[in-house]
Amino acid sequence: MRTLQPFNAGWLYVADQVDLTAPDERFQEITLPHTNRLFTHRNVDCLDYQFVSTYRKHFTWSPDPSRPQVFLDFDGVMLAATVWLNGVLLVEHLGGFAPFSVDLTPALVPGENTLTVFVDSRERADVPPFGHRVDYLAFGGIYREVSLRSVPTCHIDNVFVRPQEVLSQPRLEVAVRLSQPAPDLILQARLIDGQGAVIATSQGAAAQPDVTLHFDALPPVTLWTLEQPALYTVEVALLAAGALSDMVSSRFGFRTAEFRPERGFFLNGQRLKLFGLNRHQIYPYIGVAAPARLQRRDAEILKFELGCNIVRTSHYPQSPHFLNRCDEIGLLVFEEFAGWNHIGDEAWQQVALTELRAMIERDRNHPCIVLWGVRINESADNEAFYTRTNALAHALDNTRPTGGVRDFLSSAFLEDVYTYNDFSNSVAEPTQQPHLITEFAGHMFPTKSWDGEERMVDHALLHARVHNRQMGNDRVAGAIGWAAFDYNTHIEFGSGDRICHHGVMDIFRLPKWAAWFYESQQSPAQRVVLRLAAHWALGDSAGGAADSMLLFSNCDEVEVTVGEQVVGRFQPNRADYPNLPHPPITVSGLNRALAHHRYQHRDLRVVGYLAGQPAAQLLFPADRLPRRLLLTPDADCLVADGADMTRLAFHLVDQFDNPAPFAIKIVTLEVEGEADLIGENPFPVVASSGALYLKARHRPGVVRVTARTEGLPAATATVELLAPGTGEPC
User: Fold this and answer.
1) Among 355, 439, 453, 519, which one carries the catalytic annotation?
2) Which CATH class for the 628-722 domain?
3) pLDDT tens readout for residues 547-557
């Protein structure tokens, strides 16, 4: 039976292309995922990661007649990889965003083996997405995980699970691809529910390289929904004379997802307005080399903090850990293959098709994925190429539609869903159907965390206006805003710090006020939201003081008090935002209240009400001075595997723990224990908050982190490091 071994620890690395015989002393020891260098979070020069580096790993191999073939599975290497084993060239792989496998068998020897991977991270014109300008940085390195897979000669190569007639009489087809036909072997599949019970079985002969197993009489199944994302597992075994020879398992869900012309999107037969954001896989300091925990955390932010029901993986296949978490929490995904604006020559197009195939074959069992992106983002029409991409997607997966993101309405419509980047800051009347808005806002209104109050409010209201309009248009399936998070970019794009400040959150995943609009659209049954989109400072508005201010909330109404004077009760603005579940709330009459307190204490109190009862409260002090430094890790434990890490966010806050937006301080972090701080330390805080990462080493224990800044008490946090494989929740 196959073995699958993590292959991430014990690598050697040098930031240069060295000879295969170069001594190990030239290298440093690293653990994957790995970025070819670390960066500051701003002012990143793309030339700094564009070089060829060398990765080396020594490992011992003992031949096993039951599994003689050995593969190295790469989740992602940026941008091209040349793989050598024991001085033998095995493969040169082009493309940095999709997985690939290398057959090590021809060069393996019993005992000690030396693996070398030359990683070319230059932005090569022969490899997508490059060849022209690209609005994001690709960074470099073996930035996703690697595993060693040992299998029998006849083994299971791929499993595609296809639920059928889900809403009436559920059936299941399981398409199995074998490495070679084996008429004397039997395929046996088991359907396992979320509690681990086997609820159905099927089997067939392995006489052909492609075999479809059928589950025709299933017991009642639980649908995968956004609220209850029920997951099942199909376990496919290859049997030789009744003995287990190979086995592969895959999670999936029973659900239907369709885009209907003139009607929009339907999940399990129920109409659902799509409400989401785009996601880049870029992080501060580490580029794209984020471990599983950070990948999963992004999905959780999108679903639970921002209240999205869909995310677009702009503009490339993304981490399996991210997609797995989307499956688990009920977050829909529009996944597209790598590219941006540019279509290269025939060889370039072939690389793109190879990545498209790899993406679909890896990800087609994810119930979260409802649409394949088969057009290079914002490219010109190319009917010959896009006929091929659509045909390939339909051949590999006949259960999902295709979309192709364009930025001009006259574009040829070859896909199943008309996916359109609408930067009109409105909603262009759709002519092609079905119609999905895949970008809006973004570069039309870049906003920094330290921008003035009016800019921050206008940014948030732009997202509110577009979503209000799309929700009121039955011919639009939904809208996916640009973007969830700020990201590093090339000099031709972004602001002077080479960051595209297009996100509703900054690059650290810390919210701007537009993020508060998104989270306020959640049902209060999930989470009560009450946010003030104002600094509560007389001098931060044009004219010296504003008579009104904005709240984002899912409460029925709010009561506002200044000092001891009640300003009034205020309801959501349904006149201007009739289609939003929870419109913004405008508070007026502040000048009258402030007139009584202009030279006195004037704390602000906001109480949100649901069904007539207080449900949330905000308190803002008059002085708005920073009184405390907070330090908050996202996780209270990590796995001591040399790769796991968590965000350490620090906040300068007032006496009621609100962000102190005008504080400018230097924050310094110190760590005690078997972990490293990743990021700029000391850190210059200019917008009340910032973040570093805490990265575990290889030894279990307790890590203590202390944050200090002049004039405020120190803040501390502890994180426990657990031994790998202990089974402890972490």
Assistant:
1) 439
2) mainly beta
3) 789 999 999 99
